[in-house]
């Protein structure tokens, strides 16, 4: 089934981020007695700012977080102990996106309360200082796989789209495979907002990414904008096509996508590949030619969704 509450979605995104960030455990070569906490603080200014020269707190940071982050520590006799942290991932390969996740989250819309609730160690270090918590996420939290969200729905939609790609796509895939993953995600995860459409009360969110990512309900524009945005994150040339389409009974306003693969342009209509009341995906409107799409899609304009 394709029904999730918004709260469930946030929980799933949190699990997505942490689920692929498990690290190997390491032999305890550093003990509280032989730990050179002064050198550890001096090596990492962010820790010195947070803990000063508090030996116990610095040691706890190294054991609980520092090793996972790949930070080095020294024994009192000068021996350097490197964690050589290597992530154990459930997703083969890595994924290079066009922006970082933290760059999508402006400080003024950072949900400090959410970050504090899920990161008590950060609160212990910085209290409830929202500015310092945001700086922690940008400088360390994203790399550590910590979840962070926004107080703004539009930004949360972009963050969750980013998370979906990170958990389902990797650099070992071909461009067409990446395109197919996004197409299938939209068809399997979301539903056309048919009830509001027929009632004539379509909410604004259904025309945009918030409808897809946060409510799993959208109309064609929401499908097309989400697809375009994900392509932009992947670095695949894409645009949103606007115009009218004939569904076999009538002609109405519609939106779909065009992508570039190699030297060729192809057309995709994820909305029409998601049968109302049925199970998808189908591929009738997936990677087809302009001539094929023009049979019942009549383009008159185009635009793109900004990444940031």
* SSE order, one letter for each helix or strand: HEHHHEEEHHHHHEHHEHEEEHE
Unreliable spans are: 1-28, 84-91
User: How many separate helices?
Assistant: 13
**CATH second-level architecture of the domain at 166-303:** Roll
Total number of β-strand segments?
Answer: 10
What does this structure look like?
This protein is α+β, with helices and mostly antiparallel strands and 308 residues long. Among the domains are: 25-85, no CATH class; 166-303, C8orf32 fold (Roll). The chain is built from 13 helices and ten strands. It has helices at 6-19, 37-43, 45-51, 55-66, 112-118, 120-126, 130-141, 153-168, 175-189, 194-199, 209-215, 220-234, 290-293, and strands at residues 22-23, 72-74, 80-82, 87-88, 191-192, 217-218, 238-246, 251-261, 264-268, 297-303. A four-stranded antiparallel sheet has the order 9-8-7-10. It has a two-stranded antiparallel ribbon with strand order 1-4. A hairpin with a 2-residue loop joins strand 8 and strand 9 (264-268). Helix 1 (6-19) crosses helix 8 (153-168). The longest helix has 16 residues, at 153-168. The chain is elongated. The relative contact order is 0.10. Mean pLDDT is 85; it is low at 1-28 and 84-91.
